[in-house]
# Entry
Amino acid sequence: MKSKFLILTLILALLLGACQAATPQATSEDGFTPTEEPVKETEASASTQAAAPTQPAQTSLTSSEPMPGCRVTGAQLKPNPTLEALFPAISEKDWTKGPSDATVTILDYSDFQ
Amino acid sequence: MLAQILNDYPEDVRIVYRHFPLISIHDKAMLAAQAANAAGEQGKFWEMHDLLFARQAEWSNLTVEGFQTWLEEVANELDLDSDQFMTDLVAAENAQQVQASYDQNSQIGLPGTPFLLFNKLPIQVTLSYDSIASVVEAFLLEKRQYQACPPMVIDPEKQYTATIQTEKGDIEVELFADQAPLAVNSFAFLAQEGWFDGVTFHRVLPGFVAQAGDPSGSGMGGPGYEFDNEVSPDLKFEAAGLLAMANSGANTNGSQFFITFGPTPDLDGNYTIFGRVTSGMEVAESLTARNPAQGGNLPAGDKILGITIEER
# Structure
C-alpha cells in the first residue's frame, strides 16, 4: 500500500508538471507567490535539432513550407497508460451521468460526509 | 458544482462517481454511500447523491440511528419505495460493495476526497466551477488544434502592426518581425485564422502582466504546435507595454502572449519579446484583474474581439 501511494504521488508530481499553465512567472517582488516550478527541460528542447533548417525569408514566403523552429505537439493533455492502469476502467457497475462518448470523463472519488 | 458542469456541457462531459467513504473520520460516510446505492436500486442514485450533498448540514451531526431515520424520511421525499429502500440500505451486499470500493481506493493511495480525474488525468483544480470548466475547455480545445506548424505568412524584412480589439477598446501594437520572426509569424497566422477571437485575458496581474491567447481560458491551452524562443540581447523587459510570448519552459511558445505593465527584468532571457504597444496602453491597464492561481471563482475576464495585422 505504501509503495503504491508513492507511485501515485510520483505520477501526480510528473503530471502536474506536464499539465502546467504557460507563464511568465510572477516573482515575489511583484507581491505574488510563484505558482509554477522554474523553467523545466522537456522533450521539446531535445527535439529542437529536428527543426527544419532556416530558409531565406524570400523562399519561405513563396513556399508553403512550415515555419522553422516549430514542432507539432499533439494533444497537450495526453492519456497516461500508467495512470490508466492504476484506476479501474469505467464499467456498467459505475454510477455515471452524461454520454458515454463524452470528450471529458470526470471521475469523482468522493465521500458524502 | 459538477451538476452545473454537466448541465452546461451536456454533450461533452460525463461524470462517474466512485465511493471513497473516509470511514476513520466520518462515522456516517459508509451509510451515506449505501443510501445512494439503495436509491440507485430504484433508479435514483443521482437524486440521492445531490440531496446528501445539498442537505449535509441536516444530517452530519446526527447519530447513526438518527441518520437512518432521516434517510427514511428523505426516501419518501424522493418518492422511493421506502420499505425497499430501508432493506437495500442495510443489505449485506450493499455494505460489502461500499467496503470493497473503500478498500480499492485506499490501495490506490488517493490523497483525500473529493479527488477528481479528467480522462484519468489528475489535473490540479480548485473546487470551483470556473476551475473545472476551464479544464473541460482545455480538452475541448484539442479539437481545434493544428496538426501542422503554420506556414510563413510574414516577410521578416517588412514592418507589421497589430490591432488587438478588446471589449475595453483597441490596443495598437508594433511587431518586431526582424527580431522575432517566428513569434510574429505565428501571432499573425493565428490572428488571421481567428484563433484569438473571443479569447479572454485570463490572467491579468496589475503591475506585472496581462496574459491571453488560450481559447480555453485555463492557461494550459495552445495551438497544437510550439516554437523556439527568440531572445535578442537588445530587447529587454525594461518598460510597460512590451508584447511577449508566454511559455511553459524554453522553446515551448504556442499562442499565449502577454503585455507588460512595467519593467519586469526577471523575465529577461526566458521569454520572446515580439512587439510593443504604441497606443491603447490605458485599455490594457483597464483590463479586469484576475489571478487564476488564487483559485475560486474569478471575475469574468475581458475578451479579445479580434486581432488584425497590417503590413506596412
In short: The radius of gyration of chain A is 21 Å. The longest strand of chain A covers residues 104-110. Confidence is low (pLDDT under 50) at residues 1-6, 27-63 of chain A. Strands of chain A lie at 70-72, 95-97, 104-110.
